[in-house]
Design brief:
- The chain is mainly beta.
- It has one domain (26-233): Jelly Rolls (Sandwich).
- 11% of the residues lie in helices and 35% in strands.
- The strands form 3 sheets. Strands 1, 4, 5, 7, 12, 13, 14, 15 and 19 form a 9-stranded antiparallel beta sheet that branches. Strands 2-3-6-16-8-9-10-11 form an 8-stranded antiparallel beta sheet, with no helix packed on it.
- The longest helix is centred in the N-terminal third of the chain and has 18 residues, at 2-19.
Amino acid sequence: MKKLSSVFLTIIVLLLCAHTSFADSSDLIARYHLNEDTNNTTQDSSGNNLIGQDQNITLIKGKYGNAFDFNSGGSIRIVNNQLLEPARVSVEAWVKNATLPGNFQYVLSKGANGCNQASYALYTGDKGGLQFYISDGITFIASPDSGTEVWDNSWHYVVGTYDGSLVRLYVDGQEVGAGTPTNLPIGYGLPNGNDMYIGKYSGTCVFGFNGQADEVRVWDRALTLPEIKKHFTTNPI
């Protein structure tokens, strides 16, 4: 009986470890594996059914399975949903490109105010490296810049977070700089669109993304450094 109880206890521990190997999925807003373009759609595996509408998508070999290449002007549009408008947020993605994509290239954007800013976004900024920013619709606050070393034709794991006091960027499980202090509320309901895009910013002007992306995720809180380190080394279904 003791041996049987020990076996059951071992199974329970393993199941709990498997469950906690990824951040609490109840905080997950959307997850896009980017493995296939089925009838011009991208599926959301978070359970929230925030399906993406694909345009000019090219499939390539990704970090995990396939990935999407946006170099031909492709993008994914996710129609606005209140779930995509959290007060605190994290954006994750694996990104890659063989050369510098250029300035103001958007891996992900939510909403648009003219040609100026999204509510939150992961983009290349004015120096060609990666940055994450949040905006109230008038002012935007950006994380430190990753530098252009990420564009070396290898896959890199990038995460932007906002916890209500700091805008941070992480690359390959390590924080870039010390974060940018702010308590700016994220502004939604922007005048030129409130949809989310992967591979594009779409306002009164359009900024694409000259690069590839895989495993894009959005959370309704700021992921912690231990969680980010774990996500860098694991990719549970």
